[in-house]
């Protein structure tokens, strides 16, 4: 892609004005979530880096939501289609904005996974003066436009499902909707589209017949259903999601990451994982994550917007959100860390430990049943089982600072704000309300009395 130079300028036109009634719900279909991003965002990510290109998006239903839901590094030209009178009518709205001598590449917001290499081939075909389409084979083609081929495999026309004869309905080659044609040809052909059909809509697919009448060659390439299949309803969206997730998992395998089961890993957003790492079953990665090399992620973890460095082990059922985990750390089973918590090299947090807005210094450990909130731990601190930082007084949150080499006895309550000096100790079961100087042992608990048993 880096050195790709399209033969002409490209005008991408993305159709996204429809409501998507078949999807159910009120939200625009093109914003439906696919692998952690709005469906249309996948298209934007694919075309964003295309050189010599501009992007127009046709919006209508909940246009403001669609505009707000898209992130692009380029300026996008949003064009309003007041009434959704069909796909040809949608493209017509873009005609005044097209560059002279460009290729119009029409994409459907609900067909999100087309690849750059496929688009490049389509562009090259359109540059030769063809009307170029992408098709695919669908076992159950219900609802899709059927590709009617003629002699020598030429494409004569596309018949929409609603208008197809019983014989045409048997055809399994269907239209993806994706099409490229020189913009001057599009300007010429589009006004000839009429709405005399079962839906009373202006069908973009009628361009094929119109091109044939004008002796313009129509080229159709059969693609993988995964790549150009659409999502009109929840079932199709689910099928796309599963296919995309499996592909993501296979990409990891190819990069030297062991994935226990490609069907039981969900990457919702963008996650990088380094070579030699192992991802067990039922893991969910959300947002942006960077996982280093030789990291082990046990089963059933949720990892969101976090960094995990090399050689760290995350045991089963651990939740990591917005955190930075250093090298050689151990987390879990059943640990929850969040709120920008950072673990330095070799730190360990174990079962039923929660850390929030905290820093855990190099080699420090809290292995059981602990809450660390707004806490800063130095190096080699040992947190005994059941330790709680009491950081919240009902109004404000306060900080607990625990210096290097401190040993917190089991079941200590550390009432913040609090400072525990280097190498200090707390006795088990203490409620610590005052700072502890360097090297001192603090005991804050009732004295034990042994009373005689009542007879
Ligand atoms: C369309 C094709 C069909 C193809 C299928 C592939 C037509 C007439 N039919 O059918 O041949 O097999 O896609 O997925 O093109 N839209 C607008 N404005 C409108 C109408 C639609 O912007 O007035 C947008 C929709 O938001 C959607 C896209 O165009 O993103 C496609 O429309 P949709 O109604 O989903 O078309 P299909 O019935 O799927
Ligand atoms: Ca569709």
Description:
With 455 residues, this protein is an alpha/beta fold. The chain folds into two domains: 9-228, Spore Coat Polysaccharide Biosynthesis Protein SpsA, Chain A (Alpha-Beta Complex), CATH 3.90.550; 245-442, 3 Solenoid (UDP N-Acetylglucosamine Acyltransferase, domain 1), CATH 2.160.10. 17% of the residues lie in helices and 33% in strands. It has a 23-stranded parallel β-sheet that branches. The protein has a seven-stranded mixed β-sheet with strand order 5-4-1-6-10-7-11. Strands 30-33-36 form a three-stranded parallel β-sheet, with no helix packed on it. Strand 4 (53-59), helix 2 and strand 5 (76-80) form a beta-alpha-beta unit. It is elongated, with a radius of gyration of 30 Å. It starts with 8 loop residues before the first strand and ends in a 13-residue tail after the last strand. Residues 15-18, 30, 58, 81, 84-87, 89-90, 108-111, 144-145, 158, 160, 174-177, 203-205, 230, 232 line the site of uridine-diphosphate-N-acetylglucosamine. Uridine-diphosphate-N-acetylglucosamine binds at residues 15-18, 30, 58, 81, 84-87, 89-90, 108-111, 144-145, 158, 160, 174-177, 203-205, 230, 232.
């Amino acid at each position: 892609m880096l050195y790709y130079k399209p033969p002409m300028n490209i005008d991408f036109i993305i159709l996204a004005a429809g409501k998507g009634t078949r999807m159910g719900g009120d939200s625009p279909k093109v914003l439906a979530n696919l692998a952690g991003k709005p469906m249309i965002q996948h298209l934007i990510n694919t075309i964003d880096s295309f050189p010599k290109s501009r992007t127009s998006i046709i919006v209508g239903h909940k246009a403001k939501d669609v505009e707000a839901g898209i992130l692009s590094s380029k300026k996008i030209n949003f064009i309003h289609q007041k009434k959704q009178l069909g796909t040809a009518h949608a493209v017509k709205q873009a005609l005044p904005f097209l560059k002279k001598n460009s290729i119009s590449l029409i994409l459907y917001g609900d067909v999100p996974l087309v690849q750059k290499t496929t688009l490049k081939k389509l562009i090259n075909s359109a540059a030769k003066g063809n009307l170029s389409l992408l098709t695919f084979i669908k076992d159950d083609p219900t609802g899709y436009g059927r590709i009617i081929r003629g002699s020598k495999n030429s494409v004569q026309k596309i018949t929409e499902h609603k208008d197809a004869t019983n014989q045409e309905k048997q055809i399994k080659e269907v239209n993806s909707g994706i099409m490229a044609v020189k913009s001057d040809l599009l300007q010429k052909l589009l006004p000839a589209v009429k709405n005399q059909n079962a839906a009373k809509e202006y069908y973009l697919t009628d361009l094929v017949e119109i091109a044939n009448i004008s002796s313009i060659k129509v080229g159709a390439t059969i693609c993988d259903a995964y790549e150009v299949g659409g999502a009109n309803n929840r079932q199709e969206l689910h099928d796309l999601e599963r296919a995309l997730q499996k592909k993501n998992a296979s990409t990891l395998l190819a990069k030297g990451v062991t994935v226990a089961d490609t069907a039981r890993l969900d990457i919702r957003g963008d996650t990088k994982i380094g070579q030699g790492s192992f991802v067990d079953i039922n893991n969910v990665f959300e947002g942006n994550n960077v996982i280093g090399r030789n990291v082990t992620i046990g089963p059933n973890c949720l990892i969101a917007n976090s960094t995990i460095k090399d050689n760290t082990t995350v045991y089963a059922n651990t939740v990591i959100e917005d955190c930075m985990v250093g090298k050689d750390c151990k987390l879990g089973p059943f640990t929850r860390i969040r709120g920008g918590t950072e673990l330095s090299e070799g730190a360990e947090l174990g079962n039923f430990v929660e850390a929030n807005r905290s820093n855990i210094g190099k080699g420090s450990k809290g292995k059981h049943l602990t809450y660390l909130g707004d806490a800063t731990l130095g190096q080699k601190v040992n947190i005994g089982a059941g330790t709680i930082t009491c950081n919240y007084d009902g109004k404000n949150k306060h900080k607990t600072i625990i210096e290097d080499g401190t040993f917190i006895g089991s079941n200590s309550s550390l009432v913040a704000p609090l400072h525990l000096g280097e190498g200090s100790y707390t006795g088990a079961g203490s409620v610590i309300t005052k700072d502890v100087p360097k090297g001192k042992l603090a005991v804050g608990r009732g004295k034990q009395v042994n009373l005689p048993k009542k007879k």
